User: Which sequence fits this backbone?
């Protein structure tokens, strides 16, 4: 397909294939405005993209994000895409060098507008959260009834993190982490952590191979 001059070139960054595929599918109807040129399959185009859309599912958040590693020496702007929009977390991410931060409650149209704003040099922050919204896109475990937050906590368990490490990494209270664990365990019918790890490893909650950028592209 021939690229139009107005298209913004986007790379989607996350270690879970279902997550990047879901985001790419979400943006596809808007291909006249945004063109996804890289996902987690390691296509060697990272230096040429305008915006890196960083999905935080199962990932480091806040000031723990190595934005320089995401950009890999290019001039792309980073837009964080997360369900966790606590003001202090947003502030940490922007202070670390992100150019925007949006909620996963955004519709595809809202997300495209945010990408366009960031590409145009605007600093984007999340607005008020809609009430009782079902986030768009896909995530591991969605087909088994897991909410995005329950799935992410299970993904972090599958990575071997303790409850406290999950709380620290996700910027949640330890009580919130325990609540998500309890509700997730009920939905997947397990009662022990070892069972949850085994379930996660067989249901897409272990990260895919980390994204690789071809050095020849630089």
Assistant:
């Amino acid at each position: 397909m021939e690229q139009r001059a107005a298209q913004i070139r986007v790379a989607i960054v996350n270690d879970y294939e279902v997550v990047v595929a879901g985001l790419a599918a979400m943006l596809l109807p808007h291909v006249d405005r945004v063109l996804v040129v890289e996902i987690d399959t390691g296509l060697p185009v990272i230096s040429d993209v305008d915006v890196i859309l960083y999905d935080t599912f199962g990932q480091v958040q806040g000031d723990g994000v190595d934005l320089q590693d995401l950009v890999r020496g290019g001039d792309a702007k980073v837009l964080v895409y997360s369900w966790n929009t606590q003001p202090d977390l947003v502030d940490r991410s922007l202070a670390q060098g992100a150019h925007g931060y949006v909620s996963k409650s955004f519709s595809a149209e809202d997300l495209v507008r945010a990408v366009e704003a960031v590409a145009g040099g605007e600093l984007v922050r999340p607005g008020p959260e809609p009430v009782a919204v079902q986030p768009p896109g896909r995530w591991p475990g969605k087909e088994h009834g897991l909410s995005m937050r329950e799935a992410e906590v299970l993904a972090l368990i599958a990575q071997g993190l303790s409850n406290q490490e999950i709380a620290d990494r996700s910027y949640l209270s330890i009580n919130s982490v325990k609540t998500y664990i309890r509700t997730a365990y009920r939905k997947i019918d397990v009662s022990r952590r070892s069972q949850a790890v085994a379930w996660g490893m067989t249901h897409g909650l272990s990260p895919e191979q980390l994204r690789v950028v071809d050095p020849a592209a630089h």
